[in-house]
């Protein structure tokens, strides 16, 4: 099975211990199982779960399941998450599914970034042994932000495809349709949001690295 990481070389895995743990988790999850094999996109999506308090390990597990959902075939339309009656509805369902899963992956990477970002820096952060630790943490946050951005174009691509069939309504996934509308009207724009985070992070890094 191919790695579920977004293109990352061995040096990056060494640099970020989280990624090393993620690689190990992938190898364990890829081991053969004797029963209840997970084969289809919907099955992997149902393994994705949210936590009241999100920790990096939780996000990494979710990213693995969500990326496997994108790589896997869809189940028989009878087992779709929404009721579909014809090919047109099924096509809209698949486009919305891929859009939604890419958005969920972005959210998970943003959860990781939030654990390492330094949203406010003070003068005493520029002194003592903590300065380098904070700068290293900012590097990890920047990696997570930029990785999240890599999924935005895919989310937009599937959103455009789904919006072309916007006259088709699938009530069981109304929230996905709402996401689709927000993307196409510009109300939800992760590129704008993440670029704002990156600009703030750059200012924080510059402040910590500057003199008095």
Output the keywords.
single chain; disordered N terminus; 212 residues; mainly alpha; 9 helices
Give me a quick take on this structure.
The protein has helices at 10-15, 17-29, 41-47, 56-71, 87-116, 130-149, 152-163, 174-185, 190-209. The protein has 212 residues and is mainly α. The chain has one domain.
Care to describe what's here?
With 212 residues, this protein is mainly alpha-helical. The chain has one domain. 64% of the residues lie in helices and 0% in strands. The protein contains nine helices and no strands. The chain has helices at residues 10-15, 17-29, 41-47, 56-71, 87-116, 130-149, 152-163, 174-185, 190-209. The radius of gyration is 20 Å and the shape is elongated. It starts with 9 loop residues before the first helix and ends with a helix. Residues 1-35 have low confidence and may be disordered.
Low-confidence stretches: 1-35
**Count of DSSP-assigned helices:** 9
Total discrete domains = 1
The radius of gyration is 20 Å
End-to-end span in angstroms?
A: 51 Å
What helical percentage do the residues reach? Answer: 55-70%
SSE string = HHHHHHHHH
Q: How many strands?
A: 0
What quaternary form is this?
single chain
**Mind describing the biggest β-sheet?**
none
Strand content: under 5%
Mean pLDDT: 83
Structural class of the secondary structure composition?
mainly alpha
Globally, the shape reads elongated
């Amino acid at each position: 099975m191919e790695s579920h990481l977004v293109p990352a070389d061995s040096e990056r895995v060494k640099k970020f211990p989280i990624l090393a743990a993620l690689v190990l988790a992938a190898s364990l999850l890829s081991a053969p199982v004797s029963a209840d094999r997970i084969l289809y996109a919907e099955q992997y999506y149902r393994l994705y779960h949210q936590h009241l308090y999100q920790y990096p390990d939780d996000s990494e597990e979710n990213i693995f399941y969500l990326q496997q959902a994108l790589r896997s075939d869809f189940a028989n339309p009878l087992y779709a998450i929404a009721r579909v009656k014809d090919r047109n509805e099924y096509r809209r369902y698949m486009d919305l599914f891929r859009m939604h899963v890419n958005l969920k992956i972005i959210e998970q990477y943003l959860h990781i970034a939030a654990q390492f970002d330094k949203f406010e820096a003070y003068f005493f952060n520029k002194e003592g042994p903590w300065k380098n630790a904070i700068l290293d943490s900012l590097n990890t946050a920047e990696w997570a932000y930029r990785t999240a951005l890599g999924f935005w174009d895919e989310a937009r691509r599937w959103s455009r495809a789904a919006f072309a069939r916007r006259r088709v309504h699938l009530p069981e996934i109304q929230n996905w349709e709402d996401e689709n509308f927000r993307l196409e009207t510009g109300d939800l724009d992760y590129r704008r949001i993440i670029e704002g985070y990156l600009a703030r992070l750059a200012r924080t890094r510059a402040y910590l690295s500057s003199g008095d």
